[in-house]
Design a protein that fits this description.
The strands form 4 sheets. The protein has a 5-stranded mixed sheet with strand order 4-3-5-13-6. Strands 8-12-7-11 form a 4-stranded mixed sheet, covered by helices on one side. It has a two-stranded antiparallel sheet with strand order 1-2. It folds into 3 domains: 80 residues, Winged helix-like DNA-binding domain superfamily/Winged helix DNA-binding domain (Arc Repressor Mutant, subunit A), CATH 1.10.10.10; 101 residues, Periplasmic binding protein-like II (D-Maltodextrin-Binding Protein, domain 2, 3-Layer(aba) Sandwich), CATH 3.40.190.10; 94 residues, D-Maltodextrin-Binding Protein, domain 2 (3-Layer(aba) Sandwich), CATH 3.40.190. Helix 2 packs across helix 3 and helix 2 packs across helix 4. 39% of the residues lie in helices and 22% in strands. A hairpin with a 6-residue loop joins strand 1 and strand 2. The radius of gyration is 28 Å and the shape is elongated. Pfam families: HTH_1, LysR_substrate. One of its GO terms (cellular component) is protein-DNA complex. Keywords: Activator, DNA-binding, Transcription, Transcription regulation. Required for the induction the katG gene for catalase. Involved in the response to hydrogen peroxide.
């Protein structure tokens, strides 16, 4: 209060006054600003006390501005417009790093990036990395798309949706002519596993029930080339079916396979408003997609 008595005016006071003057309603202005009506009334009174004039005419049935209020409003509108231009210029230079280890889910990823960039003016930088979770923990990206169960307590995880799994085999594999494979049959074949970011491995079955032969690879490219070379079969989210990932592999529908979770991971200590808005945009895209199904 001492700061206000000495004439200090904050941005929230200007926004509150502009909203009341433009909408001619404390009720509508409070709703737009997402504050209570009593809080808005206090803010306007603080502004008037700081300036030493009455800005809002509360005597009539409809809220209006006084002569001083109308003069002040002209200046406030110009100030707020200049601030918005300044904010926009800074946002266009800002960016957020989104890490991913291989194919981004579609159309969720494209919808989220477009929705976020339109709303904030901030650019999303896509960062391909073999281990997206480590990239978050090391601060190389702000947020990452991760698949499968995340057990690390070093990151915060926000679940988005679950993906259907399909089997992948070489064009030379006996499975290449099959139209369907049961999940229970998968352990009968050598399984190629991406140890860095794969969603399917020995951990996907109860102890002793998984594949007897495991072919380990360190990233998606090694995994894909190993499957194409007929060193074993792989299991992958069905986004790959829509992407023509390799001419040497075939996809086989999996019956009874558990779905694979897709989540966003970021450091829990992050208090970045831009990151929070990205997570909101991601969840909004999930909701929009669900409503169109």
């Amino acid at each position: 209060m001492d700061a206000l008595r000495s004439g200090r005016v904050e941005l929230r006071h200007l926004r509150a006054f502009e909203a009341v003057a433009r909408l001619k309603s404390f009720t509508q202005a409070a709703a737009e600003l997402r504050i209570t009506q009593p809080a808005l009334s206090r803010t306007i009174r603080q502004l008037e006390d700081a300036l030493g004039v009455t800005l809002v005419d509360r005597t009539s049935r409809h809220v209006g501005t006084t002569r001083a209020g109308r003069t002040f409003l002209d200046h406030v509108e110009r100030v707020l417009a200049e601030l918005e231009r300044a904010f926009g210029a800074v946002r266009r230079q800002a960016s957020i790093g989104l890490g991913f280890s291989w194919l981004l889910p579609d159309p969720w990823a494209q919808d989220t990036v477009a929705r976020f960039e339109r709303a904030t003016g901030t650019t999303v930088k896509l960062v391909r990395t073999d281990d997206a979770l480590s990239a978050v923990q090391q601060g190389r990206v702000d947020v990452a798309v991760v698949r499968g169960r995340v057990t690390s307590t070093a990151v915060r995880v926000v679940h988005l949706f679950d993906e259907t799994r399909v089997a992948v085999c070489s064009v030379h594999s006996p499975l290449a002519t099959r139209s369907e494979l049961a999940w229970a049959e998968v352990p009968r074949w050598p399984l190629v596993v991406n140890t860095a970011s794969g969603t399917t491995g020995p951990w996907s079955w109860p102890a002793g029930e998984g594949p007897k032969t495991i072919v380990e690879t360190a990233n998606f490219d090694e995994w894909l080339e190993s499957v194409a070379a007929d060193r074993g079969i792989g299991v992958i989210p069905d986004v790959a079916v829509r992407r023509n990932i390799h001419p040497g592999v075939r996809f086989v529908a999996l019956r009874g396979a558990p779905r694979s979770p897709v989540s966003l991971a970021f450091l829990p200590r992050a208090r970045n408003a831009v990151l929070r808005r990205f997570v909101e945009a991601a969840l909004e895209s999930v909701q929009a997609s669900a409503e169109t199904v």
